[in-house]
Write a structure and sequence with these properties.
10% strand; binds glyoxylic acid; 10 strands; TIM Barrel; 391 residues; two-stranded antiparallel ribbon; alpha/beta
């Protein structure tokens, strides 16, 4: 069990640090999932249940975790997932994370619902920047967002398709995240919570503003608080979106398009038919349809259906280098990780995130050596124990 000891070693350690530092409603927004959080837990548990196959006496003195992806050579096959509101978790959080990811040599994917604008984030990083897009009802705003992402030199557009409606997160309801609850709730969520977390309050609350959703602010009238923006987002997400809208997005964007939020092999084939350059196997970190399969369980049939036809990324439950290797061995070309990078940034700042990425790369290298492979691109089902693989 991780504890708050002298130095953090793992993603779980940074989670504890983030929990201590953040006001409760922010930590819960980040840490929680939809409804009973079954899928959130399965994402992690199903990865844990996979056994790796230890192999011995193969020269593993020279190892490489590098992998080419969409024209970039990445230090390791990982990208930072888009996480809404991360600029509330750490000071100018999205710009800080993009900077660290760029220095490390992996892509950072900026959420539509971020505190820092795509322009601010682009100025902070030299690494690959991806832009995550939600379809909102007003297509003029969507076209404008796409044009801004292109002008900011984002190198891939990641269209999230698993949020036509929003799954209820019980923790957010309990914390009155979207307002309501009366004066006492407001006081506990606001002033009292800030007084109990002075480090966050000074660094992020006072010095980290403005706290608006800067990407969408130009299209939202009269919003000043995160609750106003979240009410706008809930009302503006477009539940009419269908496969025929993909063509329009592609024509507006004109660059590599990745479709995020696929759990079914038939949808994966449809994405290939629509010309997606990549897909993200994801259940939105267990934040949408509770009770649906974990990402690692959904991955093998999807890989069987579309491997070689589009790039396959797996997001959901990745907490370590071992998890990355299991996902790559199960058919992913790349992995994405959400909550852990935010825990590290919230709990340890830029240094914390840089440390977590090095630690994960170390875990990946050791796991490769002990499964007997020297190139990460050689990860295959052969390094998984057949009785316990997710397939
Ligand atoms: C938004 O994408 C969320 O999951 O909160």
């Amino acid at each position: 069990m991780p504890t708050l000891s002298l130095a953090p070693a793992s993603a779980a350690d940074y989670r504890l640090r983030a929990e201590k530092r953040l006001p409760r409603f922010l930590f819960d927004y980040l840490d929680g999932g939809a409804y009973a959080e079954l899928t959130l837990r399965r994402n992690v548990a199903d990865l844990e249940a996979i056994e790796l196959r230890q192999r011995i006496l193969r020269d593993v003195s020279t190892l490489t975790t590098e992998k080419s992806f969409l024209g970039n050579v990445l230090t390791m096959p990982l990208a930072l997932s888009p996480v809404g509101l991360s600029g509330m978790m750490a000071r100018r959080g999205e710009a800080a994370a993009a900077k660290v990811a760029g220095e490390f040599g992996i892509p950072y994917c900026l959420s539509t619902l971020s505190i820092c604008s795509v322009e601010e984030v682009a100025a902070a990083t030299k690494g690959p920047l991806w832009f995550q897009l939600y379809m909102i009802r007003d297509r003029g705003s969507v076209a404008d967002l796409i044009a801004r992402a292109r002008a900011a030199k984002a190198s891939a557009l990641v269209l999230t398709v698993d949020l036509p409606v929003v799954g209820t997160r019980y923790r957010d309801v309990r914390n009155t995240m979207s307002g309501g609850g009366g004066a006492w709730a407001r006081l506990r969520r606001g002033l009292l919570s800030y007084m109990m977390h002075p480090g966050w309050s000074l660094d992020v609350g006072l010095r980290g503003g403005p706290h608006v959703l800067a990407n969408v602010a130009p299209y939202v009238a009269n919003a000043t608080t995160p609750a106003d923006f979240s009410a706008w987002a809930n009302a503006s997400l477009d539940p009419t979106v269908s496969w025929k809208d993909i063509e329009w997005v592609k024509s507006q964007w004109g660059g590599p398009l990745i479709i995020k939020g696929i759990l079914d092999h038939e949808d994966a084939l449809e994405a290939v038919n629509c010309g997606a350059d990549g897909i993200v196997v994801s259940n939105h970190g267990g934040r949408q349809l509770d009770g649906v399969a974990s990402s690692i369980r959904a991955l093998p049939p999807i890989a069987e259906a579309v491997a070689g036809k589009t790039l396959i990324i797996m997001d959901g439950g990745i907490r370590s280098g071992q998890d990355m290797l299991k996902a790559l061995a199960s058919g992913a070309d790349l992995t994405m990780m959400g909550r852990p990078w935010v825990y590290a940034l919230a709990g340890g700042g830029e240094r914390g995130l840089a440390h977590l990425l090095s630690a994960i790369k170390g875990e990946l290298s050791v796991s490769m050596a002990l499964t007997g492979i020297t190139r990460v691109t050689d990860a295959s089902p052969d390094i998984l124990s057949p009785a316990h693989s997710a397939a």
